Amino acid sequence: MIGTLATLEHCLPGDYERLAKWFSSRSGWYALGKQKLFSADDLRNENLHGRTHFMIVVENGSKRRVGAVTWTAKEEYEGSYVIGTGIGDPQLYDQGLGGEAIVLLATHLFHMKNAHRVEFIFGLYNKHAIPVLTQWNVTLEGILRDYFFLDGEYQDAALCSVLRSEFYDFAAKGDLLSALDEIPNTDKEEARALMCEHLAQMPGGHLAGLFGRTRETPSYRRKG
């Protein structure tokens, strides 16, 4: 998943050490509201066999591995995910990398995982997360009072979400749609046309009509 500023990549073996270091640093406080003392093996096992998965945020210009995104499928609701992001180097905060990483992850979940709802929680002490709420098509669902405890006092948090229809409405207004598909739509249409042509030449032609049936065009692909 390639964006303007960042790319999301699958974790390599050395990335789990980076994740363990980030979670135990200031980045852990910003992203989670607390430090998490994971080992690299803990994170590898969780990513490969658990419910929470990780991808690495790579800065496009430098190719540095600078942060991570996470997503967890909610057990009680099919198609619902909780997501998060964190940039490991404080000098890279407010550069847009975390915000774009969230959009890339949401694209993956909605467009490849058939997600219906994506939600995330961030502490209202985290000024670096506020632009995600103000710049993207995100709904603020509520304020979670005294949700985190750090620096000797309780801190409020914000609960935000995006639904499938809202994501595609947002995508249709920008340049995001052109980058959503892994396989170009023209290739898919050409493949169907070739298959219809082949089936029409078969005895009886009964499969040609079934395969060549009219399919509804998704609203986000409609012109005008």
**Count of beta strands:** 7
Integer tally of domains: 2
Please list the strands of the largest sheet in the order they lie side by side.
Answer: 1-2-3-4-5-7-6
Helices and strands: which structural class? alpha+beta
User: CATH topology of the largest domain, what is it called?
Assistant: Aminopeptidase
- Can you tell me the CATH architecture of the largest domain? 3-Layer(aba) Sandwich
Radius of gyration (Å): 21 Å
Given this structure, which CATH class of the largest domain is correct?
A: Alpha Beta
Portion in beta strands: 25-35%
Overall mean pLDDT: 84
Task: State the distance separating the first and last CA atoms.
Answer: 27 Å
The gross shape turns out to be elongated
Unreliable stretches covering 5 or more consecutive residues:
none
- Helical fraction: 25-40%
Number of helices: 8
- In this structure, how is the largest beta sheet organized? 7 strands, mixed
- Assign the CATH superfamily of the largest domain: Gcn5-related N-acetyltransferase (GNAT)
State the order of secondary-structure elements, H for helix, E for strand.
EHHHEEEHEHEEHHH
Features:
single chain, 224 residues, alpha+beta, Aminopeptidase, 2 domains, 7-stranded mixed β-sheet, 8 helices, 36% helix, elongated
Characterization of the model:
The chain has 224 residues and is of the alpha+beta class. It folds into two domains: 6-182, Gcn5-related N-acetyltransferase (GNAT) (Aminopeptidase), CATH 3.40.630.30; 184-224, no CATH class. It is 36% helix and 27% strand. It has eight helices and seven strands. The protein has a seven-stranded mixed sheet with strand order 1-2-3-4-5-7-6, sandwiched between helices. Helix 1 (15-23) packs across helix 3 (40-49).
